[in-house]
Structures are given as C-alpha cells and as structure tokens.
Amino acid sequence: MKATVKCICDRQMVLSLSRFLLTFVLCLQGLLAYSQTGFNPTKNLTPDYSALKQSTTELLDKLKSSNYGNDFNTLKGTLSTLSSELSKENVSQMSVQALTESAKSEFEKLKSNSDLSNNVEGLKSSFEKFKETGTTALDQAKSLMDNGVAVSMPVTVPYLDNGPFAIRISFDSLRFVRGDDFDEVEDDNTLVNVDATFNFPFATSSDGSHVVRFHGDGIRLEGGNRASRIYLASDHRIDLMKNKVAIEILSAFPKGGKALGNCATGDSTWLDFDCNGVQDMSLCGRFLFSQSFITAATKGHETDTVMAYFSFMYSSGMIAKICFSDSFRVKGCGDFVFKVEDAIVDLSDERNGNGFSMPDGYWDESGLPVEAWSGFFLSKLAVRFPSNLDFNKKKDKQATLEVKNVLIDDYGFTGNFLLRDFIDTRGDDKNSGLALAVDTIGVSFWQGEFSDGLISGRADVPFLKKEEGKAAPGKDDGSDDGDGNNGDEIEGYPLGFRGHIGYNAAQDKYLYSINASLKADQHFKVPFTNKASIDITKDSYLEVGNENSEQKFGATLCLNGALNIESTLNLKGVRFEGLRLSSLSPHVAVKAFSLVGKAGFSVGGFGIELKKIGLKTPHVSVGGGTLSTAENEKDKADLSLEAQISLMAGEGGIGAGVGLDVHAEHENRWKVKGLTINKIMLDLDFSAFHLKGEIERFKNDDQYGDGFSGGMLLSLKEFGFGVQGEAKFGKVRQQDGKLLKYWFTNATADLSGAKILLFPPGVFLKSFSGGAYHHMSRESYATKENKVVQLASKDQYKPNKDIQFGFLAGIGAYFMDDKLCSANVEFEMNFNTNWGVNYVRLAGIASILAPLKVSDIKADGMIAGWLLAEYDRPNKTFHAEIEANINAFSGLLEGKANLQIHSDPKEWYFWMGTRSNPNYLKFASLVKAESYFMLGVIETPMPPMREKLAAKLNAAPSNAIGKEDQIQKGQGFAFGIALEAGGQLSLPLDILYAHFYFLAGTDIMVVNQNCGKLNWRASGQAYLCADGGVGATLYYPWWCKWHPCIKSKEFNILSGTVTTILTGEIPSPVKVSGELHVKCKLFFIPMPKINIEATIGKGC
Q1: pLDDT cut 70: percent of the chain above it
Q2: The domain containing residue 734 runs over which residues?
Q3: Do 754 and 814 contact (CB within 8 A), yes or no?
C-alpha cells in the first residue's frame, strides 16, 4: 500500500512539473523571442528549442498513459536531459519575460514536499541545475500573470521599406489552462488576449482614424505551423478627399442585397498570426462617394450612394480588386455616364492581379519581370456621352467611350481610348446628301505621352449610280444600300474609311490621314455617258490628311479595277492597278495599266486592232502612303499604245503596226510634250513570200544605253526556204564619259525544204548563216558560271570598246531526215582595235531522234550533244569541251559523257569525266556504271568514301583515308571506276521476297608531291560492299472486330552484309590499311560478327 502511494505521488509531481515545463517552452519558442533585435523574429531560435519542445511533448504523452510505473527511471532521465538543455548558454543569456511567481512557488513546493522527500530525492537532485539556470526567468515572470506582457512583432514589407504598411501586434494577457481542470477545454492550452493595428496606406489623420484595429479574447496559441486568427474590432471609416470619398473597413461583405461585381460576397477582414509573427491578413471594405461628388446613373437608383468594394489579402502581395456597385455621373461633368469594370490596385512586386496584361516593350529595364510592376490597372472603363453631344441620329444607338488596359504608375499614364458610334447622320434629311457614320475614334497614350490614334466609319457617295440591270457583286438586287438596309436612304454607295492620328514631337504637330475604301467590289456607270462603265475593286481607297508634315493638306484617290467602253471601239478591258490621283505632287502615279484581251474598230474600211495600252509614270506607289516630289519637279506621264492596222485581209494581206509613247507634263494643266515611236511592225503575206518582223526601241538601258533591236523573217513559199535575221544597234556612254556606238547583225537561211545533198549517201544541207558585229563581244565559255553551250544570238552580246570587228559563219546539216540526226555548227572570230586576232570560237549542237530547228541555239533530244572550242588570244587560253547526254525511253536509260581539254599559262588538263562529275550510264535505276580519267591538274584530293559504303561501316563519308594521309591535289593523273546495282525480287503476295545491293570500285591517283626521296606519290583505294536478304510472309486467319479476316506478318529467313575497303600509298614510305566487316542473321538469331582492321606502314 505504501509503495502504491509513493508511485501516485511521484506521478502527480512529475505531471505538474511537466505541464509547467511545456508552458515555459511555448513562451520561449514564441513570444519571448521577439525581445531580440532585428526584423526577423526567429533568427535567434535554434534547433535546441525544437528539441526541447519535442522532448516535453513526448514526456506528457507518457504521463497520460495508464502504464506509468515501469517507466519512472526513464522519465527521470528525460527530465535530467531537459535540465541540461535549459542550462545551455543560448538559453541562459536570453532576455526572457516568462514564467510567473506562482509557477516558481509551485516549483519550490514540489522540491521541498516532505511527503515525497524520501521517494523523490533523486528526482529533486536532477532539478537543482535547472533551478540555477532558470532563476532569472522565474524572477521576471511575475508581471506576465499579473499585468500581461506586450511584445512587438514588426512585419517587413521590403518594397515599401515598412513605410505605410506597419503592422504591430501585442498580447494583453497570457494564461495557462489545464484540460483536467476545465471541462470546456480538452487539452492544455495557452490563451492570450490579442490586439493588432494596421496603418491604412496613403491615409493619415491626427485623431488616428487611419489606424485599423484587430482584437481577440482568449485566442489559443496553436504552436508549430498552425496560425491563430483574430478579427476586425469594429467596422471602421476613414474620410478622404475632404470628405468627398470615405473608406469603410468592413468585418465582412454584406450577403445578398446589391451585387458586388467580381468581388466575392464571402470575404471578411481578419489577421492570422503565430509565434513567428503575422502570417496573413484579409482586408475588405468599400469606398463611399458623396452624392455631392458622384451620383448613381441607373434609373430608379439616382439617390443611392455609389460604392466601390475592394478586397485583398496580405499574402497576395497587396493586390486589391475594386468593384463598383453602379454606373455613375460625376458632378460638374455634365451628363457623362461612367461604368468601371475590372479595376486592380497592385502594390506587389511578386505577382500580378488576375486579368492584368502588360503591353509589349513596356519595361525599359530588360531584366525586370512583369510581376514586379506595381500601380493602378483598369481593364475597361465605358463612358456614355450626353445626348446634346451625341451626333448619332440612330435612336437605338448612343455614343460611348471605352478606356481599355489603363496603367498608371511611375512611368505615367498608358492606355487606349475608343469612342464608338459618335456620329451617324444617315437618315437625316438635312445632311445635304452626305450620309456619314463615324464608328470608332481611338487614341493611345504611352507612358505619359501621346502615342497614336485611329478613326473609322462609313460614308455614302451620292454621285455614283449602279448600272441598271446589273447588281453589285455580292447583292441580289438594287434595293440594298450596302449596309443591310432595304431601300436607299440616298443614291450612292457606301465607302468604309479608316484613319490614323500621329504626333510629331519635333514640330509639336498632330498629323492625321483618313483612308476610305469600298466595302465590296462595285460596278458603276460613268457619269454623263451611257457608253462606259467602270469596275472598282474593294481594295481601292481615298486618303486625305496632313501626314506629310511639309504639306498642310492632301487628298489621294487610289483605284484598282477596269474600264469598259462599248461603242464603235469595243474596248472590253483596260485594267489598272494602283492608279493614284492626288492633290499633292506627283498628281498621277500608277503601278500597272494594261489592256485585257483585244480592242478593235474600223476607220475608212481599214481594221485597226489595239494590242497593248499602258500608262507609265516616274513615281510608283508602294504601301499606300502619300507620294510627294520636290516643289520644282513637274508631274509627268506617258501613255503607251501598240496598235496594228490591216490594209488587206486574208492571203495577200498587208499589215503594219506601231508602238509609241505620248509624253505629257502637268503644270497648271496637262500638256502633250512629245511623241516617241518605240516599235515598228510589218507583216506582208503574199502568194510568193511572207515577210514578218519588228524593230523595237530601247532607251536608258543599263548595258545598252539607247538604240534599236529587232528581227525579220522572210519565207519564200515557191522554193520552200526562208531567211531569218536579227539586229541590234545603239550607243552607250562609258565610264570615261565617251560615247560608244555598236551594232550586231546575224542572218540564217533555212534550206531544209530544198533537199541539197552535201555528202553521199544521206548528209543534206539544212541551213547556213552569217553575221557581223562592231564594238561588241560575248562572254568566254571558260569564264562563264553557267556552262551551257549556245549558238550566237543578239542578246548574248554586250558592248565592248576593245573589239573592232567580228564575224560569224555557220552551217546546219542532217542525216537522211532532220528528225533522225541533225546538227548546227558555227564559227566565230573577232579582232581588237589594232585588227589583231582577239578571239576564235567553234561551237556546235546536235540532236538524235528529235528534230532540231534552224533557229534553235541549244540542243534537246533523246540523244543530245554539243561541242565547243575557243581560243582567247589576250589571255593565251585554249579550251575545248564535248558532251553527250542520253535520256531515252522516259528515263529508262540515262547517261552522260564529257571530255575537256584546257591549257593556259598556269595550268593544263585533259579530263574524261571528273571525280565530282563522272561519266555514267544508268539503266532503270538497277545498274549504274561510273568512270573518270583525269590527266594534268587533279581537281580534288582522294575522293571521300561513298555515303552508302560509309553507312555500312557506320563511319563518316570523309573518313575514306585518314585526314593526315590525304594526298593534296596537284599535277598528275587519276582514274576511277565504280559499279552499283540493287533491286528487289518477290513472289505474288510476297510469300517469298529478296533484296540485294552491290557496290564495288577503285580509285587511283598519282601526283607530284615531295615525300621521302621521290617527288611523286601514288595512292589508291578499292572497296566492295554486298548486302542482301531473303524473307517470307506468313498469312493466318484472325477475327477483326465483327468479321473474320486474314492477317500477315513478315519475317527474315537469312540476311547478311559484307563490306571491305583497302587503301594504300606508295612508293616510299609505304602505307597499307584495310577493313573487313561481316555480319549475318539466320531467322532471328544473329551470327557472330567479323570486324577486322589493320594498318601497315605510315604515310608522309
């Protein structure tokens, strides 16, 4: 019995002492830490406190358990550990205000209890050291229970430097409640009475009304990461703007009643805190506007007070959404009605409010994130105009102003203003026939400065009437005015217009331009005539404004469309594009002006056909901007005409034509300033001959200057042959300022119908030609980038002052029939200004199994070829080249063979194909053979490995020979051949199938190169690659969804690859290297691979 009493007494003593320790730990870990200096209230809290609290909590859990007696020694050890923790330097040095005198007395009573002294002597000894280290704390705790403790908890708001957002919290009373003593409390708790204050930003008062107060009685200190919450002490009012605006801080938003827009009706005002300070705060309230300042605009609510609700949370970074209860009017601003939507006050540098958007390029600090922006953001503000300022005659519409995406911050004001439905005079009998609707006027500001603006709308033009019997495109009849209204309000067609407003800061001047365009393509009758109509496309426009800052005002009409005239002149299509008529210089400009189809009429029995018409101006509009010229520059325009007259119709007819430009200038009016004949055409068709030709004038050409160019064809019908000639002559000013005159002429006689035998048994003369030129030359073939051989024509020759004279002579022949084999050959020679030989050229083209016309200057046939040999005497260069191409049976057989001979003072070579462009023969994409032989200059080093061979070796194509071993190009010879074949074979349904690929070849090169004791070096390579496989397809029945079906699966039976390459260099030093790679697969079983690589010797 005695032992039982001791156990119970020991348990009571330890339980009481442990409760006391738990209270002590909570105070140390939370409230008392704030007596330390610095904004961070937890910087002096070490992990020791956490360990202390955890140990104490575990102790209480054990004390509350029913089986306690067996763990008494463990409990004593735990308390000894707590005593040791409390004796640490960082605990003893804290300036604490904790514990109470009553707690100290309880501790002393427990220690000196005579009834327990014999049984707990060891336990009392364990707390001796704790008493010594905790005496200071015990002495300072008296005021905690008697008067309460006030602890300041500053809140740091870095981006405001703690200025207007100071929050302070104090605890008036701290008391410890035991769960065993109070039925309403389930567990031990520390309860506090809490007061907190918050300075409302941007508001000050002498009576302290700008301070928002929070209060809570008996608030439980949760501990850990859990926060406690207190609420607004009472609804609070703050007057602003000389009592025109008041702010009410509400305990909670009212439920029901008026709508609060996007502000949540469940928001309330509260403050969360824990032992680490303020964790979060929710503040909700409303702005109340005095009726002497703002009145409600909704009908029936004119006497209501306009309110703007707001709500924000401290953790969200001080971002508040403002929701107005009603649209409103401002006293002193007339009958303007304002409606605010989605306004946000953002005082956070960590995030943005919902719906916020920043314009592109707004920040000048490139590294600053969008979230760092702070200020006032207004998504949308609508302003309705008073009726006396509303020019909208439509009863169902009223002018409104929208303000979008407004930012007000340190940069200034940024936003867009849109004025809608401001003017609409349609339906007004007093508008003098002009129906005008201004749909939108917009103005933009950027960071406190005017940026730009726009204006758009519609206008009806009264003087254009729709042609009777024709509906405008996109309309069923003539009863639509273009705006969807039945019945014309006025006789006219709608134009849509759009304008731009700008600002020239240098001149402090606003610039504007208005662009009007058709809403759809239109067909009009030209006023004052019944014989003409005009089609205007919807991309035509009228532009007025002063956007050219040098001009006060300008108007430009730009038209795209076509003009139709039906009379004796049946003109069905004159199409114009970008035809600009302007009040500014240039007054006329055009992009394109052309005749569609033909136009014909008769004069005195002679038929006249207008083949071409055009309008040319020196100024071309691009982009639709207003054009301008210098003040002293006159407007010019050229009307281009090309016409042909038939003097006699049918066979034996005579036709002539002319192309001319009529020049005009504009001073006070347009005046004809001259006539230029650009082209003369002649067509004489008689029973014996046909003569047809034209000569055309060119002017201010970059290469040819001024002159004439043309051609003539004479056919002798009786004899079956004809003569075709061409000529070009003119003058051009050279860089030294001197004038160079030049001419070129060439003629070809077609004798293909005469059957003149040249050589038995079947070589016939087809043609002969001749020509001459002065101060002209053609580019040498050896220097041309485009290596195409062509016979002479006038367009290939350019003016050249170093050529005195040159002549041409040619002959054409065919074998048996001109469709079987035909060729043209030409010889050319020219002389320098000293009459020395300058250039000699022999060229020819041939075609087999395809006809070759006399006038052809290049060959094209199943088998086509050409030859060229030229000698350039000043550069001492001789070059000859022959090439044949095969393209037969729709690509079934293809091939090419090329031979080149070249010699100049620096190099020479003889090539039959090259490495980069070898001769080849290819059949049906199955077999391809290639070869080349090069003597003299070798164009490239040893060729790289072929791509397909490199793929088999898993190597890069450039690794045929190691880079350090590659022999550079030089004088010598090279030779190479290659054979490539591949294909696929299969039985029906791919029951069995096979594929194969074969590649083999060799390359040899010998060049001059200093290596060892010899000055030449030979290298070569040989390679072989064979790849193949055999497979089968297995078909088996299967069930496919709702019906039976047959499925198939392919599998390989045997596949393998053999690849080998051998390279070498001789004579001294000798280097040989080789590779062999073999891999094989039987069914799905891979066989052992063979990979052998070896190198003997070394290179230079």
Answers
A1: 60
A2: 696-776+794-847
A3: no
CA–CA dist 25, 48 (Å, integer) = 11
Residue 996 to residues 439, 980, 985, 988: CA-CA distances in angstroms? Answer: 74, 11, 9, 18
My answer on whether 75 and 122 are in the same domain is yes
Phi/psi at 129 (5° precision): -70, -35
Question: Which of 948, 943, 980, 976 has its CA nearest to residue 1059?
Answer: 948
Contacts of 710 (CB under 8 A, 6+ apart): 693, 694, 695, 696, 726, 727, 728
In a domain, 916, yes or no: no
- In this structure, is residue 130 part of a structural domain? yes
Give pLDDT tens digits for 792-834: 888 889 999 999 999 999 998 888 888 888 888 999 999 999 9
Q: How many CA atoms lie within 13 A of 256 on its CB side?
A: 0
Boundary of a domain, candidates 847, 862, 886: 847
Radius of gyration of the chain measured on its C-alpha atoms: 52
Average pLDDT for residues 695-701, to the nearest whole number?
87
Q: How many CB atoms lie within 10 A of CB 778?
A: 21
Strands (E), 336-477: 337-346, 375-384, 391-392, 400-409, 412-424, 435-446, 449-461, 465-466
CB crowding 730-753: b at 16 or more within 10 Å, else e: bebeeeeeeebebbbbbbbbbbbe
The least confident of 280-284, 562-566, 630-634 is 630-634
Q: Tell me: do 640 and 732 sit in the same domain.
A: no
Q: Write out pLDDT tens, residues 356-383.
A: 778 777 776 556 777 777 777 877 778 7
Residues 179 and 138 in one domain: no
- 114 and 255 both lie in a single domain: no
**pLDDT for res 36:** 35
- How many structural domains is the chain composed of? 5
Q: What residues does 645 pair with on adjacent strands?
A: 608, 656
> pLDDT of 375-425, one tens digit each?
778 777 787 766 655 555 565 666 677 787 788 676 766 878 777 776 666
Q: Are 867 and 849 in contact (CB under 8 A)?
A: no
Residues 988 and 1083 in one domain: yes
Q: What is the pLDDT of residues 770-789, one digit of tens each?
A: 999 999 998 877 666 666 67
Q: Which of 539, 438, 434 is nearest to 492 (CA)?
A: 434
Helix (H, G, I), strand (E, B) or coil at 122: helix
The DSSP 8-state label assigned to residue 268 in this structure reads B
Which of 639, 655, 687 terminates a domain? The answer is 687
Residue type, 688: A
Type of residue at 358: M
The DSSP symbol for 299 reads T
Closest among 73, 53, 71 to 62, alpha carbons compared: 71
pLDDT in tens, 86-132: 544 444 443 333 344 444 444 455 455 544 444 445 445 545 544 55
With tokens 């207007």, the residue in question is 164
Q: Kindly state the tokens that stand for 598.
A: 């033909």
183 in a structural domain: yes
Region 212-236: mean pLDDT is: 80
User: How many beta carbons lie within 10 A of that of residue 293, not counting itself?
Assistant: 16
What's the pLDDT at 1001? 93
pLDDT tens per residue, range 710-741: 988 888 776 667 888 899 999 999 888 899 99
pLDDT one-digit tens code per residue, 893-949: 999 999 999 999 988 999 999 888 899 999 988 999 999 999 998 866 666 667 777
User: Phi-psi category of 186—alpha, beta or left, where left has phi over 0 and alpha has psi -120 to 50?
Assistant: alpha
Residues 733 and 671 in one domain: no
Give the tokens for residue 445. Answer: 């500001």
Assess if residue 491 is contained within a domain.
no
Instruction: Indicate whether 660 pLDDT > 50.
Output: yes
Same domain? For 107 and 197 the reply is no
**Does residue 653 sit in the same domain as residue 723?**
no
By CB neighbour count within 10 A (0-12 exposed, 13-18 middle, 19+ buried), where does 491 fall?
middle
Query: Strand locations in 585-666, DSSP E?
Result: 588-589, 592-595, 599-603, 606-616, 635-648, 654-666
